[in-house]
Amino acid sequence: MRISELSRRSGVPIATIKYYIREKLLPAGNPTAHNQADYDERHLRRLRLIRALVSVRGLSVSAASDILAALSENEENTHLALGLVLGAMQAEERKKPPQEGEEVAAGPMAEAERLIDATGWQLHPLSTGRTQLARSLQSMAQVGLHLDWQTLLPYARLAEQTAVLDLDQLSAGGDDRLSLAERAVQVTVLLEPVLMILRRMAQESESFSRYGSPPGEEPPAGARPAAGEEPAAAPGETPGAA
Amino acid sequence: MRISELSRRSGVPIATIKYYIREKLLPAGNPTAHNQADYDERHLRRLRLIRALVSVRGLSVSAASDILAALSENEENTHLALGLVLGAMQAEERKKPPQEGEEVAAGPMAEAERLIDATGWQLHPLSTGRTQLARSLQSMAQVGLHLDWQTLLPYARLAEQTAVLDLDQLSAGGDDRLSLAERAVQVTVLLEPVLMILRRMAQESESFSRYGSPPGEEPPAGARPAAGEEPAAAPGETPGAA
DNA sequence: CCATGATAGACAGTGGAACTCTCCACACGC
DNA sequence: GCGTGTGGAGAGTTCCACTGTCTATCATGG
């Protein structure tokens, strides 16, 4: 297909497609002439994946590029692709503090190590997970929320169970004609917002069952705080669209 | 204290502090003269919280502003503050597709509804969680990952348990002199990156224990059975066609 | 009293990211 | 032939999060 069809089918403007190609997020079409190239379904899928990474997950274009590159390297080896994708994501996180001044303090690092020990997780020695975790803990400590490994352990156990589900998902999805590597990206990266939404809803519900009134609902007597949510918020659709 | 001290103690440049004040993220100092105002510990804590929201969690300044505003309205009522914060976060997510063209299709919406039914969660009728969930599911479906409510239910259960831990954290933290509302922000918003890091590490470990070689490592001998047999896969149902 | 220096407040400017536009010479279909 | 579509490349645009500059104070030390 030609670029205009790719654009029409993906909903992405031609100019943007060209931009993605320039930035190496999308491989160029197969050139058939000096000013003609054609694109196939793979381009379309890749393009949709890019949009999902960027708009659903909110990754930067360069981070998406890293992930996609990792994915291209290993279309057929899911396991390896998963590793590369995880590595690429970690790289993304690392882009925020590019200046090396921000050393991770010993305290948070030790806490992270102890947590990982306690879980018994097998991490690749080069994995940056420890450092990332330590960095996050440090940031939280700076705002006054000191989390120790005992507190985090139950969270880690739940993360563990989530990961089991994730890997099951990966294995189960063989029927699609998507490459497993692509599924790895979807399951590890794109599922994150979904999980966070689920957590927020669960928090709302849990808060309700503990304190009685749904959060955001008006308190028993007066003093409606005004900062709340607009009733007409969810624009357009009616939830009853079953 | 004066602005220079606030800057020194927080590590945030004066110009940036002024910017935050202009943008209403930070309340202005208490003016003592036309060109003098003084700031207290509350300003310092708020400033650190802003930095955490923006750099740790990656929120936009305006989103952080919404959350902080919600928080200010209700310094003392944790429960209410939690609701407001959740609402503010949802508002943030909503900023991505400002154009109203993007209707949520009936399919994803129905799936979201069914999932929420299945969990038995008590959601505020105005909560945008459903819509957000549906929107995410729709995005994932567009890239070929069709998740039905049966598949999501175990994830939801884990989210539920996570939420229980979260609320425990909130209740337990009374010893700090931080307002409960601030803790609510920290626990709901700032913990997200930590949980995602835990999940990624757990995935790495789980992948290791299933496939033997740490992800990112190269497989022992060539041709690792890419898609062939999956050992512990428990494909109860295939989420493929819907 | 006055020089010095730190403010507060307003507003313009900067740099990076993610597009979006404009050209151009060519190719394709009629 | 000729008008539209195309690939490629670079310039331009928009938005955001700052950052710098300016002016009118005000605080203080000499």
TrEMBL record, chains A, B:
Keywords: DNA-binding. InterPro entries: DNA-bd_dom_put_sf, MerR-type_HTH_dom, MerR_fam. The keyword DNA-binding applies. It comes from the Bacteria. Residues 206-242 are annotated as: Disordered. Residues 1-70 form the HTH merR-type domain. Residues 219-242 have a biased composition (Low complexity). The keyword Ligase does not apply. Gene3D superfamilies: 1.10.1660.10. PANTHER family: HTH-TYPE TRANSCRIPTIONAL REGULATOR ADHR (PTHR30204:SF98), REDOX-CYCLING DRUG-SENSING TRANSCRIPTIONAL ACTIVATOR SOXR (PTHR30204). This is MerR family transcriptional regulator. It comes from Streptomyces bohaiensis.
